[in-house]
Amino acid sequence: MSTITLRQLPPGEIATITAIHTEEPLHQRLLALGFRTGNHIEVIRLARLSGPLQVRIGTTDILLRRSEAEKIEVNLL
Amino acid sequence: MKRIALLGMPNTGKSTLFNRMTGATSRVGNWPGITVELLAGKVLMGGEMVEIVDLPGIYDLHGFSDDEQVVRHFLSKNTPDLALVVLNATQIERQISLLLQLKQLGLNIIALLNMSDEARKFGISIDTTKMSEALGIPVYIFSAKYGNGYGEIQQGVTQSLRYTTPGMTEQLRHQLEPDDALEAEMARVLKHSVQVPARMPDDLTQKLDRVLLHPWLGLPIFFGVMYLLFQAIFLFGAPFQDSVGWLFDWIRSSLLEPALASAPTWLYGLLLDGIYNGVSTVATFVPLIILFFVFMAIVEDTGYLSRAAFLMDALMARMGLDGRSFVMLLMGFGCNVPALMGTRVMRSRSLRLLTMMTIPFSLCSARLQVFVFFTAALFSPTAAPLVLFSLYLFSFGAAIVTALLMKGRLPNSEPFVLELPPYRFPTLRQMMMRGWHEVRHFLHRATKFIIIGVVLVWVLTNMPTSAATAGPDTWAGIIGSWLHPFFEPIGINEQLTIALIFGFVAKEIVIGSLAVIYGSGGDDLGNLIANQIDWVQAYSFMLFTLLYTPCVSTVATLRSESRSNGFMLLSLGWSLLLAWAVSFVFYQSARALGY
Q1: Chain A nearest C-alpha distance from B221 (Å)
Q2: Mean pLDDT of B467-481
Q3: Which of A44, A61, A65 is nearest residue B415 as measured by Cβ atoms?
Q4: What are the DSSP calls for B509-578, one per residue?
Q5: Residue ranges of E strands in B139-295
C-alpha cells in the first residue's frame, strides 16, 4: 500500500483517508464533512487552470482546493 | 411561550421545513450557510402558541465560524424547550455527528431525517425505530419539500413539547466529549439502523455534471445560461410591463384627473405629477423584478450556483477571492445588501473585506430598472438586450479591477472547502414564494424611499414658486448648475445630475425623480429624454449609475458588516472615482471617434 496525498490521487480511483494535516478550525470542518481516517474517498473531477477538486466521501460531494488536498494523506485501495 | 429551535447542517432543507411549519416566506437557498439572520415564526401547536426559530446551518458545535458561534450563543442564552435537528437522510452517516453533539448537551431533541425521497432513490434504507432506540430520542423521516411524513412530525412535536430542557452553561464547547468517543457512538447508532449502497448509482446529477462541469464547456455554458435568462426576463416581462403601465395611465386619466380637477394647482401637481407619476413609473418594473427573482431562485435552488463556484474558483483565486465570492457577486445582482451579509460565511477578514469591496459593483435589480428604462427609450429593441448585457460585463469588469487593485492589501489564505449539493428541482411553490418575498421586500424598501424621494424632488423642482417647473431657477436647477462642471465632461445634463443625486439614496427613485423633473411618465418620459440626449450620453449616464454608490442601505450595510468607517469611506470614494473615470473615458472616446 502506497501513501500519497489526495492531490496526487487520479480521478476515478478510490482511496482510504489515512491522515489529515490541517490546522484546528479547518480540521473540524473537514471532520464534519466526512473526512475521517478510514473513510473511502474518490476524486470525481479537477477544475481547469489549477482550480479545485470535486471529491466524494460516501454520499457527500465536496469542493476543495489543491493546496488543501495536499494536506490530506490517502492510501490507494 | 415555548420555544422550538430548528438546527442542522447547512443545506439540509431546514429553511424549507421552517416555511412549511410557519407558512412564512423565509428564503430557501440551495447554498450552504445562507441563512444569516435568525428568522422566527409563531404557530399554534397542540392548543398553545409556540415560537419557532430557524438557526443558521452549522457543521459542528466545535466550529469557529460566525454561524457556529451564533448557534452556541443562542443555545446557552435562549435554551429552547425543544430542538428539532434536521438531518439530510442521504448523508446520515456523517450528519449524525451533529445530532450526537447536541444530545450531549442534554437538549430535548427530535431528529428529523429530511429528503426521504432522495434517500430512497439512492437505495439508502433507514430503520427509524431501531435508530430511535439506539439514540434514545424520537426519529422521524420525511420530505420537507413535498410534505410526506409531515403529519407524524407535528404529532411528535406536540408530544415532546410536554418535556423541557434544563438550562445550559456558557461553556458548551467544553461539555462535548472528544472526537474518538463521538466516532464510536456514531458507529454504534448507524450499525443496525442504516444501510447505504457501496457506490452511488449513476444518477441524473452525475450525468448533468459531466456536461455542466465539463473542463472546457462548463464556463461557456454557464455564461450562455445567464445570457438566456436575461433575454427571457425581457421577453416574458415586457408585455406585463406594458399592461401595468397602461393600467396606471388609465387610472390617472379616467379617475384621478377628474377627481382632482377642482383641487388647488400645487396640490394637483404634487399628487399627480409628483407622487403618482413617480410611483406608477416605478410600479411598472414590478413584473420584471418578480421574473428576475423567480429565475434567480431556479438557478440557486437547483444547485447550479454551487457549480458556478467550482467553475470560477480558479479565476477568482487569481484575484485574491474564491468561488464563494463569485456566488455572492451573483447574489448581488438581486440586491447588494443580502449579498454583503452573505459574506459572513467567510472566516478570513481580508477575504470578506475584499469580497465586500467588489459586491457594490453588482448590477442590482434597482439599477436594472434604470437601465431597462434608458435602453428602451434610446436603443432599438434588437440592440437593447445587448446594451444591457454589456452593462453586466462592465459590472463584472469593475469588480475584477477592484479586486486586482486591492488584493495586495487584503491577502487571503482562507481554505476553500464547500459542499456540492445534488441538483434538485425547485417546486413551483418555492419559486413563487421566493418571487413574492423578494417583491414584497423591494416594495417595502422602495415605497418608503420612493414616496419621500419623489415628494422631495417635486419640492426641489417647483420651489421657489416664481420659477418655471424644473427650470434653472428652481432649487434643483441651482444644485444642478453647481455640480455641472463635474458632470459636463461625462455628458450628463443638469436634469440627469439631479436624478443622480437622488439615486444616491436609492436607485429605485431615479426613474421616479426623472418623471417628476420632466413632469411626465411612462413612454412620454422616454421620448422626452430621447429627444434631449443621444445614446452616447445615455450610455455614459448608465455607466455612472452602474458604478457609483448603489444606495444608502448598501453604505449602511458596508459600515455595519465591516465595523469600520474607514472601509465604508474607502468603498464610497473608490466607487465615485471609478464611476467618473469610466464614464469620462467612454464619453470622450466616443465623441473623439465621431459618435
Answers
A1: 15
A2: 78
A3: A65
A4: HHHHHHHHHHT--HHHHHHHHHHHS-HHHHHHHHHHHHHS---HHHHHHHHHHHT-HHHHHHHHHHHHHH
A5: 139-141, 194-195
Interface size A-B, in CB pairs within 8 Å, comes to 114
Instruction: Indicate yes or no: CB of A29 within 8 angstroms of CB of B416.
Output: no
The secondary structure of B5-49 as a DSSP string is EEEE-TTSSHHHHHHHHH-------SSTT---S-EEEEEEETTEE
- Check if the beta carbon of residue B85 is closer than 8 Å to that of residue B111: yes
**Three state DSSP letters for B84-146:** EEEEEHHHHHHHHHHHHHHHHCCCCEEEEEECHHHHHHCCCEECHHHHHHHHCCCEEECCCCC
What distance in Å separates the CA atoms of residue B421 and residue B506, rounded to the nearest whole number? 36
A 18-77 → B contacts, CB under 8 A: 22, 24-26, 28-34, 36, 44-45, 47-52, 54, 56-65, 67-68
| Residues of chain A contacting residue B209, judged by C-beta atoms under 8 Å apart | 44-45
Going by C-alpha positions, the residue among A36, A47, A46, A48 that lies closest to residue A72 is A36
Which residue type does B266 have?
W
Beta strands in chain A (DSSP E): 3-5, 14-20, 40-46, 53-57, 60-64, 72-76
> Do residue A62 and residue B419 have CB atoms under 8 angstroms apart?
yes
* Chain A residues closer than 8 Å to B323 by CB: 52, 63
Among A32, A51, A59, beta carbon nearest to B59: A32
CA distance B565 to A29: 32
Angstroms from B316 CA to nearest CA on chain A: 9
- The model's confidence at residue B36, banded by pLDDT at 50, 70 and 90, is very low
Closest approach of chain A CAs to the CA of B82, in angstroms? Answer: 23
Question: Do residue A68 and residue B415 have CB atoms under 8 angstroms apart?
Answer: yes
Backbone torsion region of residue B8, taken as left when φ is above 0, otherwise alpha when ψ lies between -120 and 50, otherwise beta: left
> Which member of B179, B213, B417 has the closest CB to residue A62?
B417
**B450 to chain A nearest CA, in Å?**
43
Cβ contacts of B215 on chain A, cutoff 8 Å: 45, 47-48
CA angle (B207, B211, B213) in 5-degree steps: 105
- A52 contacts B314? CB cut-off 8 A: yes
Measured in angstroms, the CA of A20 and the nearest CA of chain B are apart by 14
> Tens of pLDDT along A11-21?
988 999 999 99
Asked whether B322 and B351 are in contact (CB, 8 A), the reply is yes
Strand B2-8 to strand B109-114: parallel, antiparallel, or no bridges (unpaired)? unpaired
Task: Identify the bridge partners of residue B48 per DSSP, sorted by sequence position.
Answer: B45
3-state secondary structure of B430: helix
What is the ipTM for the molecules in this complex? 0.91
- What's chain A's Rg over C-alpha atoms? 11
pLDDT tens, B11-34? 888 888 888 888 754 544 444 443
Please say whether the beta carbons of A56 and A41 come within 8 A. Answer: yes
pTM of the model: 0.73
* B500/B188 Cα distance (integer angstroms): 65
Q: What count of other Cβ atoms lies within 10 Å of the Cβ of residue B389?
A: 15
In this predicted structure, the answer to whether residue B526 has a pLDDT above a threshold of 80 is yes
Greater confidence, B283 or B566? Answer: B566
- The cell for B445 is 424598501
Q: CB–CB of B248/B275 below 8 Å?
A: no
